[in-house]
Amino acid sequence: AAIEDSSIDFGDFFRGKLPGKFLLLLGWLALSRVGTYIPLPGVDRAAFSGSMTDNSLFRTLDAFSGGGIGRLGVCSLGIVPFINAQILFQLLGSLFPELERLQKKEGEAGRKKVLQYTRYASVAFAIFQAIGQVLYIRPYADDFSLGWIFTSISLLTIGAVLTSYIGERISDIKLGNGTSLLIFTNIISSLPASVGRTIDQALKDANYAGLGTIGLSFFLLVLGIVYVQESERRIPLNYASRYSGGLQKSAYLPFKINSSGVMPIIFSTSALALTSSVARFSGATGFNNIVATLNPGGSFYLPTNAVLIAFFNYFYTFLQLDPSDVSDQLKRQGASIPSVRPGKATAAFIETVLTRISVLDSTFLVIMAVSPAAVEWLTHLTAFRGFAGTSILILVGCATDTARKVKAELISQKYRVLDFTSDT
């Protein structure tokens, strides 16, 4: 009876630990936003913010930081150094067997050790990126002295470490990934201002059709993201006789269509931003002209971005799911794919499936990446620039993930209540 009663009503939310968890979550998220409003000393922030107006790449990154880059807040680096450290160790795990063993075969102890290494690496990334940011804002500094440089680098590094710490504490609450929720909060904080600027521009230009087109495209993007996020390729499984008690007909191996999330787009954006930064510091005219074609609005931006997204998506998909490892796990569990021999044949079959999924997912991510530029060209409204399809993907993905965890917590809570109150 307890298993069949899985209905949830509004009152169930207040009968367990969820209200306290949500209050704690909101408290950590509010604390993470405080640092973006504490400015670095000795900088002309108005002039710096004005210099970002025509750079859509930096405006997109500013949306991810919740406006921290434009305000030059002490937490303007945000969670980016920690993400870079995570990516580094994921890549190193595919190169060094010892690190891969820690990540996959040592259980919780191994994951904690890798997390500790990631923390150390994130501090190094924070220092490096803080130096780069200080050098970039040099023209807007009131007194570019050694003391100001040391103070600014220290404040930015401390802000990044504090943000990473908050992200870990949010993950401990078990209502979603801390990193994703921090980015979700930053994007949400930028959304009202972006919508306000877009409506204001549309009203000034009497561009009501363009405003309606943006609203419709936003609605369609959300529907498409939810559909793809919840889609999966299910491969049927057969179990050995000792496992066949009712499982043979219902067991399957699920592969998410969008298993890599938004990481390929983030990688592609970072690569293009790095190229732009190198050109800015090099000062070479020819190189600057080439890089200008790769910036948003340039002639080669869209095709280059699409190729990079497809490459990173393919790489990240197989970084997360190793066909040989999946094949070995199925063999140990006594499971097999119908009409496919265990071992190398199963690994080859899974690799083919993942390759096809990667093509579909790459097409979806490219549409997400280029849709803002297409809508901007169609509507002639540019004020919404910076709030890209990537941002919508993060918002919808994070919201659905949190909703799924809340529902699971409510069902689990109800099962515990029924278990304690039922007669035995």
Automatic annotation (TrEMBL):
Entry GO terms, CC: chloroplast thylakoid membrane
MF-aspect GO terms: protein transmembrane transporter activity; signal sequence binding
Biological process annotations from GO: SRP-dependent cotranslational protein targeting to membrane, translocation
Keyword hit for Plastid: yes
InterPro entries tied to this protein: SecY, SecY/SEC61-alpha, SecY_CS, SecY_dom_sf
Keywords: Chloroplast, Membrane, Plastid, Protein transport, Thylakoid, Transit peptide, Translocation, Transmembrane, Transmembrane helix, Transport
Presence of keyword Membrane: yes
Membrane-spanning ranges: 22-40, 69-96, 117-136, 148-167, 208-228, 262-280, 300-319
Coiled-coil intervals: none
Entry's localization field: Membrane; Plastid, Chloroplast thylakoid membrane
Superkingdom of source: Eukaryota
HAMAP family reported in the protein's UniProt record: SecY (MF_01465)
Family assignment from sequence similarity: Belongs to the SecY/SEC61-alpha family.
PANTHER family: SECY/SEC61-ALPHA FAMILY MEMBER
Protein name: CpSecY
Origin species: Selaginella moellendorffii
Record lineage: Eukaryota, Viridiplantae, Streptophyta, Embryophyta, Tracheophyta
